[in-house]
Design goal:
Number of helices of chain B: 23
Helix content of chain B: 55-70%
Order of helices and strands of chain C: HEEEEEEEEEE
Oligomer: heterotrimer
Number of strands of chain B: 0
Chains: A mainly alpha, B mainly alpha, C alpha+beta
Largest sheet of chain B: none
Helix content of chain C: 10-25%
CATH superfamily of the largest domain in chain C: Rieske [2Fe-2S] iron-sulphur domain
Largest sheet of chain C: 6 strands, antiparallel
Distance between the termini of chain C: 70 Å
Order of helices and strands of chain B: HHHHHHHHHHHHHHHHHHHHHHH
Strand order of the largest sheet of chain C: 1-10-9-4-3-2
Shape of chain C: elongated
CATH architecture of the largest domain in chain C: 3-layer Sandwich
CATH architecture of one domain in chain B: Up-down Bundle
Number of strands of chain C: 10
Number of helices of chain C: 1
Structural class of chain B: mainly alpha
Strand content of chain B: under 5%
CATH topology of the largest domain in chain C: Rieske Iron-sulfur Protein
Radius of gyration of chain B: 36 Å
Chain lengths: 362, 426, 153
């Protein structure tokens, strides 16, 4: 900090320091350094995910001001935002596109952390909070999808809430709790709204807070292969932050361009009594599950195939959380398994996107 | 010999129907005809018995002897087929209408089985082209069994019946599409083929709209005959009421009657009724007016004026639609504008129907109204496109600023790097 | 970018100041370009209600004569608003179920008619004669204060 502070600035700082503990924070921030090596590029993904999350929060709060969470009014209120509210189209499209970008970046962050083995001791708990944050992000995506109450969202939610029903024992109860009843109705909308704007944000705040605190506590993890070779590091403030900002500005630019050239579709208001149009499918990040369940035979050893599928997904989720312990000895096995799972998920996603003969565009 | 058989046949006819006058209790299981005819596996003998099992008359309790006479309880053919018992064998074509009519023209009888069924089919048949020819001895024309079948008769509402709503045109076409047969009667053999190219066929067959006419809708069922020249307007007018009323008010009505022109069919054809277009009013190949109205005459000028009006309005509507479509593709909200366009399309439909008044001034009202609405809708579409342009301009401004910021950041980053390390490389 | 020998000359300082200014201004302008739409968004538009499942007509109940009917736009679709002799309001969708022409009220016959192919409906929207395969859909109408409100099905 080469510039000399003016006298007045000095008095302000002193006031803040005494009351807010400013200096300690500034000190911590100044100390934080980011190691520079071959894989430094991946360090940006976490910050990008955080930034996109904040974009979602901001646009989401703005949308809250006009959205009406009832089956009678939800669709019309979104239509109102798109057509009549100044820049409403911008906020809504950024929120919808941003959700997809956010989930994609969260996946990228997870995958890079995984393959760089940043979950090694002492960062196991950081990993666990991260895995939970991934599930929360998917929960945001799933609950938010229903809110415009159009045909696509309605039927995708119907299909999606059928999946937990497959869990043996508590499945039906779980599905009932999710749906607010035995079917997807206005009650489901109210519930998903509450989940999307209150429950998930509250849990996310806690998890995110924990995640960030732990990252601060342990500093940036350096992959084994470049450990020791790294001598250079740059200060987080302002150097790494400025590089972060380049990425953030680019992301905002992309979202604005998407909003202007590819506005998010409004669709047709949901009619619970109409039959489901062909080609219903969930958002891309759920497609691998959706498609995978389709390929399972109806019974395997007498157990319904779907139940086994759902239990398998549950096992995958548990394995994800347990990665730091599954990979105690840092062998290659876990990386191979992960590549296999990712490849399978990618293939399933592509298969799900292939045009269904005779289906209309959803 | 022949007259005796005829007398016997008539007596034979009386017998089964006399029995049929009694309250309908089917004479139980004795239908020996079927037993024998089924057992004899001859293609000339067994099919009727097989078909009859599914016949609506069988289900009502009528058996073979009710139409063919004879005795169902006999084991041997000579006894079962005894003309003294009224056996007439295979009825001749000329006998069939009266044979069926014995029961189906009897109101009291038919009320016991199907009260809402008409009982005037025989009367109608006698007025038809088929009936008149048959009466003169022409046995190649249709009688009851030709269309309804003989042994597996289904009610008309049953889709298996050859005269059900979806099948009747094909049934007519069996004969009326047969070139040799039609030539012998001096009739064209292409009505079905022509009808299959019409809008009525498309509506009926492709869109399953059974309100669209098929053969019997215009020609009648049992009294089938082409509508007379003077009655064409009335027949078309049963559905196309507005056009018929307008035509009767137009300057074409009296002259067409005087000239013996077939009303609507003069311009629209009878079977191959295609979707009309403004080309009908033009001077080219598809012109309907130029066959009577010479170029430059008052009639031709009126046609041209009407055509110009319609084409103009249609053009305005399409222009507005294109604008609105473009705005919608760009993501703009256009439902209010589209509603206005619907009103303009309605005005165009009205104007098109008012062509049948054959007076250009009559159309002006609808056309003017349509133009006003279409222009308003076009303005709405343009406004939304302008909004889209505003958004894109705003986007470029923001992107420009973002780019500027990124460039500034990169430069500052590089500057700091340069200062903090003596080497230019990372 | 060849390195000048790191001389803290006034030239370098001016360059740094200029760069900081550039960075600050561009970031500031960018931030403004984000805030401007947000601030405009917060101000509600003229039509302060979304067109809900309820649609308030620009029409006073008293302005509709008894034993009459008229077409009004409701959410972009034509609707037939009827008032019977007793003064009760009713509404039906006005799109003919045959081939989508807009129907009309016939006062002399107290029925609803489609001019396109002579389809007829009764005042409850039931298809009575002609081609229409299905009845018209009834909509709820009520009066709020003076204005007429139609509820979409």
């Amino acid at each position: 900090m080469p510039e000399p502070s003016e006298a007045r600035e000095g008095r302000l700082r002193a006031w803040a320091r005494d009351r807010l503990g400013w200096d300690e924070l500034a000190h911590m921030a100044a100390k934080k350094r980011v190691p520079v090596h071959r894989y430094t590029l991946f360090y940006y993904l976490g910050g990008m995910a955080l930034f996109l999350f904040l974009v979602q929060v901001a646009t989401g709060i703005l949308l809250l001001l006009y959205y009406r969470p009832s089956a009678a009014e939800a669709f019309e209120s979104v239509q109102y935002v798109m057509a009549d509210v100044p820049f409403g189209w911008l906020m809504r499209s950024i929120h919808s596109w941003g959700a997809n970008l956010f989930v994609a970046v969260v996946f990228a962050h997870l995958i890079s952390v995984f393959f760089l083995k940043a979950y090694r001791a002492p960062r196991e708990v950081t990993w666990v909070t991260g895995a939970i944050l991934l599930f929360l992000a998917l929960g945001f995506g799933f609950s938010g999808y229903l809110l415009p109450w159009n045909t696509l969202a309605f039927f995708a939610t119907k299909v999606g809430t059928d999946v937990p029903a497959q869990i043996p024992g508590i499945g039906h109860l779980l599905s009932r709790i999710l749906r607010g009843g035995s079917d997807v109705t206005g009650a489901t909308l109210s519930r998903f709204y509450g989940i999307h704007v209150a429950i998930l944000p509250a849990i996310t705040t806690l998890m995110l807070g924990a995640h960030l605190l732990l990252v601060q506590r342990h500093g940036m993890s350096v992959p084994r292969s470049v450990e020791g070779k790294t001598r250079r590091s740059i200060p987080f403030v302002p150097d790494f932050l400025m590089r972060d900002m380049v990425g953030w500005l680019a992301a905002v630019g992309i979202l604005a361009a998407l909003a202007a050239f590819f506005p998010w579709e409004l669709g047709v208001k949901a009619d619970p009594f109409a039959s489901a149009p062909a080609g219903i499918r969930p958002e891309w990040y759920f497609l691998w599950m959706f498609q995978g369940l389709k390929y399972l035979p109806s019974k395997i050893f007498g157990i319904p195939g779907e139940t086994l599928g759902v239990l398998f997904f549950g096992a995958l989720g548990a394995a994800l959380v347990a990665v730091p312990w599954l990979d105690r000895r840092g062998r290659r096995g876990i990386a191979v398994a992960a590549v296999a799972v990712l490849t399978a998920a990618a293939i399933l996603t592509v298969l799900a996107l292939l045009p269904v003969p005779g289906a209309e565009k959803p | 010999m022949r007259s005796r058989l005829v007398v016997l046949a008539l007596l034979g006819l009386a017998a089964p129907c006399a029995r049929a006058q009694a309250p309908a209790k089917p004479p139980a299981a004795i239908n020996g005809c079927v037993d024998c005819h089924l057992a004899l596996d001859d293609p000339r003998i067994s099919p009727p018995a097989k078909l009859f099992a599914d016949d609506v008359h069988a289900k009502a309790g009528f058996t073979c002897v009710f139409c063919h006479g004879g005795d169902a309880r006999q084991e041997y053919q000579e006894d079962a087929h005894d003309p003294k018992k009224g056996f007439i064998g295979k009825p001749k074509p000329q006998q069939i209408p009266e044979l069926c009519g014995k029961c189906h023209s009897d109101a009291a009888l038919m009320k016991q089985y199907d009260p809402s069924q008409r009982v005037d089919q025989l009367t109608e048949y006698r007025t038809s082209g088929h009936g008149k020819a048959l009466a003169k001895g022409d046995t190649t024309v249709a009688e009851c069994a030709s269309c309804h079948g003989a042994h597996g008769i289904q009610p008309v509402k049953d889709s298996r019946s050859p005269v059900s709503a979806t099948k009747v045109a094909e049934t007519c076409n069996h004969c009326h599409g047969n070139a040799a047969l039609m030539a012998a009667h001096e009739l064209p053999s292409d009505p079905y083929e022509k009808w299959s190219r019409s809008v009525h066929y498309r509506a009926r067959v492709e869109k399953a709209d059974l309100s669209a006419p098929t053969c019997n809708s215009c020609h009648g069922n049992h009294g089938a005959a082409p509508p007379q020249v003077g009655s064409v307007v009335n027949v078309c007018g049963t559905c196309h009421v507005t056009f018929a009323d307008q035509f009767k008010l137009s300057p074409h009505w009296e002259p067409f009657k005087d000239m013996g022109l077939p009303g609507c069919v003069t311009c629209h054809e009878n079977h191959e009724i295609v979707k009309p277009s403004e080309a009908f009013l033009a001077e080219g190949e598809q012109s309907k007016c130029s066959s009577c109205h010479e170029a430059g005459s008052a009639g031709a000028r009126a046609a041209a004026e009407m055509r110009a009006d319609l084409v103009g309005l249609d053009g305005e509507i399409r222009r507005a639609e294109r604008l609105v479509d473009r705005a919608e593709e760009a993501g703009m909200e256009v439902s209010k504008v589209r509603f206005d366009l619907v009103a303009a399309s309605n005005a165009l439909t009205r104007a098109r129907s008012e062509v049948h008044l054959f007076r250009p001034s009559a159309m002006h009202g609808a056309v003017a109204e349509g133009l006003a609405v279409a222009r308003k809708a076009a303005a709405g579409g343009e406004a939304r496109l302008k909004e889209r342009d505003f958004r894109q301009r705003g986007l470029f401004v923001s992107l420009g600023l973002i780019l500027l910021s990124i460039v500034a950041l990169v430069v500052v980053i590089r500057e700091r790097d340069r200062r903090s390390s003596p080497h230019p490389e990372d | 970018m060849s390195s000048a020998v790191g001389s803290q000359s006034s030239g370098a300082a001016t360059r740094r100041t200029w760069l900081s200014w550039l960075l600050g201004t561009s970031l500031g302008l960018t931030l403004f370009s984000f805030l401007y739409p947000v601030l405009k968004y917060l101000v509600p538009p003229e039509s302060s209600e979304p067109s809900l499942s309820e649609f308030e007509l620009d029409l006073k109940a008293a302005d509709v004569a008894p034993a009459s009917g008229r077409i009004v736009p409701v959410g972009g679709k034509p609707v037939l608003l009827l008032k019977n002799a007793a003064g009760e309001l009713s509404a039906l969708t006005a799109t003919c179920t045959h081939l989508d022409c807009t129907v009309q009220y016939r006062a002399d016959r107290s029925d609803i008619w489609c001019a396109c192919h002579n389809g007829t409906y009764d005042l409850k929207g039931r298809n009575v004669s002609g081609p229409p395969p299905r009845p018209l859909t009834p909509l709820e109408v009520y009066v709020r204060g003076e204005k007429i409100v139609i509820k979409r099905a």
